[in-house]
Amino acid sequence: MTHSLTAFLDESGNTGANYLDPQQPVHVLAGWLVREPNMVGFARVVEKVREAMEMPELKGGRMLTTTKGRRQMLHLLKEARSFALPIFSIWEKRFCAALRVVETFLDPKHVSVQGGMGGCRRSRPAAGGRLVAR
Predict the structure, then answer these.
(1) Could you read off the pLDDT of 56-87 as tens digits, one per residue?
(2) Which of 7, 37, 63, 101 is a Cys-bridge partner for 69, taking CB atoms 3.0 to 4.6 Å apart?
(3) Which region, left, alpha or beta, applies to residue 80 given φ > 0 means left and ψ of -120 to 50 means alpha?
(4) What is the dihedral of CA 102, 11, 43, 40, to 10 degrees?
């Protein structure tokens, strides 16, 4: 039996087109990959932590500044693993700049650059030549 998967992602280090910012040399995407049957359990874990933190949206930077927040972060990481797989991608931005140049000037017919990380996110033509976002 196959189930659909949902990725919940957040980013850090997005400086737009400034790929050479020495203060933020990497771009990170991190989050959770959740199978459809596990979605309710995963949502319960996240909601429990959100309520405990009294935050409309969980923000790691804010959570890590307090003892309570750090405890809740550990709880979230421990409990969420029962329902989801942690995932991450780390890009050194100077290589993203090179990838953007190649895709823009050498392969514009087959690759559509999409927002966020510029050349580090892309879509390729699907069957029939239509571009589809991933």
Answers:
(1) 999 988 999 999 999 999 999 999 999 999 99
(2) 63
(3) alpha
(4) 10
Q: Is the pTM of this model over 0.90?
A: no
Nearest CA-CA partner of 112 in 124, 126, 129, 94: 124
Q: Is 119 exposed, middle or buried (0-12, 13-18, 19+ CB in 10 A)?
A: buried
Cβ neighbours of residue 90 closer than 8 Å, sequence gap 6 or more:
26, 27, 28
- Spatial separation of the C-alpha atoms in residues 39 and 112, rounded to whole Å: 31
Place of tokens 């931005």: 93
User: Amino acid identity, residue 67?
Assistant: T
